[in-house]
Amino acid sequence: MKKVQTEDGVTHLQWVTKPEDAVVYDECFWVRQQRCGTYVSVGIDDREFVTAQTEEGCVSGTRFYLKGKQDGWDDTSVVRHSGTVGGKL
After folding, report:
1. Burial 53-88 (b: 16+ CB within 10 A, else e)
2. 37 lies in a domain?
3. What range defines the domain where residue 57 resides?
4. Closest by alpha carbon to 23, among 31, 33, 15?
5. Strand pairing partners for 30?
6. Higher pLDDT, 72 or 31
7. What does the pLDDT average to over 44-52?
8. Per-residue pLDDT averaged across 80-89, rounded?
9. How far apart are CA 34 and CA 32, in angstroms?
10. Residue 31: pLDDT over 90
11. 80 within a domain of the structure (yes/no)
12. How far apart are CA 66 and CA 52, in angstroms?
């Protein structure tokens, strides 16, 4: 992403890698198709968020992810379980 300044002094943010014909969803991400046929969502900072088999699944998954991040969902609230069994079997 780079900052572009217009003649009237207004600064706009512009994606560096986003193609001109890409559809921007919710003014915060766009979706591109990868070589293997899957779709990946890319944010305004060129970070990839969600990978899915369909474009609709990628859009809905990205909206769910970004809503969770906005509401304070982070990795510290995730419960991690161990795959080992203690004791004798």
Report:
1. eeeeebbebbbeebeeeeeeeeeeeeeeeeeeeeee
2. yes
3. 17-71
4. 31
5. 24, 42
6. 31
7. 89
8. 75
9. 6
10. yes
11. no
12. 15
